[in-house]
Design brief:
With 514 residues, this protein is α+β, with helices and mostly antiparallel strands. Helices cover 40% and strands 24% of the residues. It folds into 3 domains: 1-77 and 197-388, Bira Bifunctional Protein, Domain 2 (BirA Bifunctional Protein, domain 2, 2-Layer Sandwich); 87-195, Herpes Virus-1 (2-Layer Sandwich); 394-513, Rossmann fold, CATH 3.40.50.800. It is built from 18 helices and 23 strands. It has a 7-stranded mixed beta sheet with strand order 3-9-10-16-13-12-11, with helices on both faces. A 5-stranded mixed beta sheet has the order 20-19-21-22-23, sandwiched between helices. Strands 5-4-6 form a 3-stranded antiparallel beta sheet. A hairpin with a 7-residue loop joins strand 17 (389-393) and strand 18 (401-405). Helix 5 (102-128) crosses helix 8. The two termini are 38 Å apart.
């Protein structure tokens, strides 16, 4: 756990030092749980969004996109259930004055039990070596079985309490488990109470409930209220999907863990409209499709897992998370939900306007069911960064290490850096700038002559640039340059005339989409 904590601190420091993420309003000592993306962060984030959009919309002939407004009619959130049901269980510690989500405190206690189980597994694996059978060990070791039984018992109590909205039971679980304030160690807790997560504002200068608006807590409702507009104008037939990327806002009780949980964040969501009764088939389809999307980036299989929901949201009849192994443990990265006809049906009822689809094959009209895929762009950013940031010994140079971001070349903020061997040699500088000006029309490149070639390489490694082009004196004679690979450190001489073609093949996002 200490090693993971150190890795996370290192990641946060790296993100600021190299221009990926800054604390919002830092000159005023910052704003809690709000962050700004720097020059390299915005490039990486845009590439993540492009990869999602192209794989979701461009590669499907039955999925189209929208960009709905953040402000929506307040009745939208009444119909969606957010006004009445979008709450988190809040608990305060009377001594530290700190505020927490009651369910998260319990989940963190369960995480500690999982860590104890893993510790036992790791010790046994080290002791028995190649003969070790993890499945057998987990099913027979008394200590592991005891931890698993306790974990299952807590999990069941938590699920029942959350489903029933039983706040007293949540408080009782915390007391029974003797859960203490993580900062002060105090167990002096208040009662648990509900806390609505929506930010509210006013429309113009109209005061009171008539002028009350909300900052949207999710982007999905902008898709649902536009269902008929999109279906009619694009002439889509069910099954079809509507995709959207946009900002959402939640007044989180305890927003923390860097950009994992923020009050202003960006979602990439797709709502897939289907015939009633077919939700199980499409739910399974999108589970596998979305896991494949993550693994295409080279993320190891052991870093990703499915986690079924014990406590279903008010709109769902099935839900699963794709979890990623962050530096602070496995947490939700993406959700796949079977939302039934809850949203369209409620909007139809509250608006008084028919929101139905006429199915020409069945010759009947119905309110479609929906399967949703929803991924946080910021969480995807954090997952990529935490997996890609490594420190390794430079091959052939014992004791010499380098820090680098092993991002997939298609997502890297800068695809190629152009570096003259000497910055005070005019001919090298002119040739390097000429190459830079030619390549900038094809992909994101950077020119840099502000240090020795070794320091320039290290700087590009740290921001994840997959290729560096070095212009040296040999280049002046034969119009070739040295192309350096970030990961392998291999160097090859390449004709300047073929440079664009060679790099393009290696950084093209097409390789992720096939």
């Amino acid at each position: 756990m200490a090693q993971q904590s150190d890795l996370f601190k290192k990641l946060i420091a790296h993100s600021k030092e190299y221009g990926f993420i800054f604390q919002s309003s830092e000159v005023y000592d910052g704003l809690s749980a709000v962050y700004d993306y720097g020059p390299y962060g915005v490039e990486l984030k845009n590439n993540i969004k492009e990869y999602w959009w192209r794989s979701m919309v461009q590669m499907h002939d039955n999925i189209v996109g929208v960009d709905a407004a953040i402000f929506m009619h307040p009745k939208t959130w009444k119909a969606s259930g957010h006004v009445d049901a979008f709450n988190d269980p809040l608990i305060d510690n009377k001594d530290s004055k700190k505020r927490y989500r009651a369910d998260v405190l319990i989940e963190e206690h369960m995480d500690k039990l999982e860590a104890k189980i893993q510790k036992e597994v790791d010790k046994a694996a080290k002791r028995f070596g190649e003969k070790f059978d993890e499945a057998v060990f987990r099913s027979t070791n008394e200590r592991v079985l005891r931890y698993q039984e306790e974990h299952g018992r807590i999990r069941e109590r938590l699920a029942q309490a959350m489903t029933a909205g039983d706040l007293a039971e949540l408080k009782q679980i915390i007391e029974d488990l003797e859960i203490a304030d993580p900062e002060s160690g105090s167990r002096n807790w208040t009662e648990v109470r509900q806390f609505n997560l929506m930010f509210s504002t006013q429309l113009g200068n109209i005061a009171g409930e008539d002028g009350k608006l909300y900052l949207r807590p999710e982007t999905a409702q902008g898709i649902f209220v536009n269902f008929l507009n999109v279906q009619k104008t694009t002439r889509q037939k069910i099954p079809f999907g509507i995709a959207q990327i946009g900002k959402a806002f939640r007044n989180e009780i305890t927003a923390r863990q860097f950009i994992f949980r923020m009050r202003e964040f960006e979602q990439m969501e797709m709502q897939f409209f289907i015939r009633p009764g077919e939700q199980k088939k499409w739910y399974e389809y999108w589970k596998e499709a979305r896991m494949k999307w993550h693994r295409a980036l080279g993320t190891p299989q052991e870093k990703l897992r499915f986690h079924d929901h014990d406590n279903l949201a008010h709109y769902a009849d099935a839900a699963v998370d794709i979890q990623f192994d962050f530096p602070f443990g496995f947490k939700e990265l993406e959700g796949i939900h079977s939302r039934t006809d809850f949203d369209l049906g409620n909007h139809q009822e509250l608006s008084g306007k028919k929101i139905q689809y006429f199915d020409p094959e069945l010759e009947e009209s119905y309110v479609p069911y929906v399967v949703e895929t929803s991924i946080g762009c910021d969480r995807m950013f954090l997952a990529l960064m935490s997996h890609a940031l490594v420190e390794e010994e430079v091959p052939g140079s014992p004791g010499n290490t380098r820090e680098l971001l092993k991002l997939h070349p298609a997502l890297a903020p800068i695809k190629c850096a152009i570096l003259p061997l000497k910055r005070n040699e005019e001919r090298l500088v002119d040739m390097a700038k000429g190459i830079f000006n030619d390549l900038r029309f094809s992909f994101q490149v950077q020119y840099d002559d502000t240090g020795s070639i070794g320091k320039l390489y290290r700087r590009q490694d740290a921001i994840g640039t997959p290729f560096c082009v070095t212009v040296d004196f040999e280049s002046l004679d034969d119009n070739t340059v040295t192309l350096r690979d970030r990961d392998s450190l291999a160097q090859e001489r390449v004709p300047i005339a073929k440079l664009e073609e060679i790099i393009r093949k290696r950084v093209d996002m097409k390789q992720l989409l096939v």
